[in-house]
Design a protein that fits this description.
Mean pLDDT: 85
CATH topology of the largest domain: Rossmann fold
Number of domains: 2
Shape: globular
CATH class of the largest domain: Alpha Beta
Number of helices: 15
Largest sheet: 5 strands, parallel
Strand order of the largest sheet: 6-5-4-7-8
Distance between the termini: 31 Å
Strand content: 15-25%
Order of helices and strands: HHEEEEHEEHEHEHHHHEEEHEHEHHEHHE
CATH superfamily of the largest domain: Nitrogenase molybdenum iron protein domain
Structural class: alpha/beta
Length: 359
């Protein structure tokens, strides 16, 4: 399931937020040379260009000239291109109605990101189609397009554990577009701001402790996440980037020590046990407290709901379902971190970038 597709339906979107990584490269070795946090790629400059290696599935791409015509299957990739001032390279997109970032309007619509039109892809004359593989279905779809001669490069920032590791994938897009220097500069500023916020958060927990997978529980206000989906409440494990975000903001969260690779399924009884008295609820569905109660009466059982301390990630969301949380949010995790810190401190709603308080 690709990010650009999931935005249309919140329940799937929420599950994707909580999904974990599988067969992560960090378990087999250290962060590749040249990277600071990301484990899923490596970039090697050469005399004639740059070599980009993506590890899952393994690809080795030799880039001798900047790519001029790029197609995207995920809105995250549009966010990276926009940050690099390279949106003019965008020649084809999937689900254009779900793109928040202003684009020039002449892109070829490739159709649904779950199964893009191979005919339109071929007609686009792309230098590369930026793809995502979330599982076996995606691999089969990629194989189908590859047989037709479609040049595909997997951008799997979602497999990374930490917010900064996800943001570092801007370097891959920079390498493909001839803007690696700009990408490094952008990421350096993002990292600096993120570390500064983390060091001055409620607990003073540093990002380096987060990246090294510290298992301590920070001091500060308690936080809950997720929603009841068909009788099961899915919450981030300690390896999920949201858990790292909560930790770096100084929040109390009961599953920092849980290192399973997928989101954690809880019964409603378990959810009440862990989160009944949580101070804030981040990442809720719905657009109002009334709507949340209508979705499931059990949502009203929690202290955060009763105290009107519930937030979704829809502040920058269009009626079409396009949400800048998926585009700018991945590129700028320091703004996501600032949101969580401000939420924990009950700062005015006007201070929030992506989070939206429910009333």
């Amino acid at each position: 399931m690709r990010l650009s597709f999931v935005q249309g339906t919140w329940l799937f979107c929420a599950l994707l937020l909580l999904v974990g990584c599988v067969q992560h490269p960090a378990e087999r070795g250290s962060v590749p040379e040249g990277n600071k946090y990301a484990t899923g790629f490596q970039i090697t400059p050469t005399d004639t260009g740059v070599i980009v290696e993506v590890f899952q599935p393994y690809q080795r791409v030799c880039v001798k000239e900047p790519m001029k015509r790029i197609g995207t299957m995920s809105t995250v990739q549009v966010g990276f291109l926009y940050a690099l001032d390279a949106v003019d390279r965008l020649a084809a997109v999937c689900n254009p109605e779900l793109i928040y970032t202003p684009v020039k309007g002449t892109e070829i619509d490739l159709g649904d990101s779950m199964k893009p039109s191979a005919e339109r892809v071929l007609q686009s004359g792309l230098d590369a189609l930026l793809a995502v593989n979330y599982g076996q279905y995606d691999n089969l779809e990629a194989a189908r397009l590859a047989k037709l001669g479609v040049p595909m490069i997997f951008i799997n920032e979602w497999q990374e554990y930490t917010p900064l590791a996800r943001a570092e994938w801007i370097r891959v897009i920079g390498a493909l577009t001839g803007k690696l220097h700009e990408a490094d500069s952008i990421f350096h500023e993002v990292e600096k701001k993120y570390i500064s916020l983390s060091a001055n958060g409620v607990s003073g927990l540093s990002v380096k402790r987060s990246v090294s997978e510290a298992v301590c529980q920070p001091e500060g206000r308690s936080i809950m996440s997720g929603n009841n989906f068909r009788g099961t409440w899915y919450v981030p494990s300690g390896k999920n980037y949201l858990a790292f975000l909560f930790k770096d903001a100084g929040a109390q969260y009961p599953f920092y020590d849980d290192k399973r690779e997928t989101s954690i399924p809880l019964t409603i009884e378990e959810t009440v046990h862990y989160f009944h008295d949580a101070d804030v609820w981040v990442g809720a569905g719905g657009n109002s407290l009334a709507e949340l109660a209508e979705m499931d009466e059990k949502h009203t059982w929690f202290k955060a709901y009763q105290n009107h301390r519930v937030y979704n990630w829809r502040k920058q969301r269009l009626p079409s379902g396009a949400n800048n949380f998926w585009e700018r949010g991945v590129v700028h995790p320091e703004e996501m971190l600032e949101d969580v810190i401000n939420i924990l401190n009950n700062a005015p709603d006007s201070t929030l970038h992506f989070a939206n308080r429910l009333y």
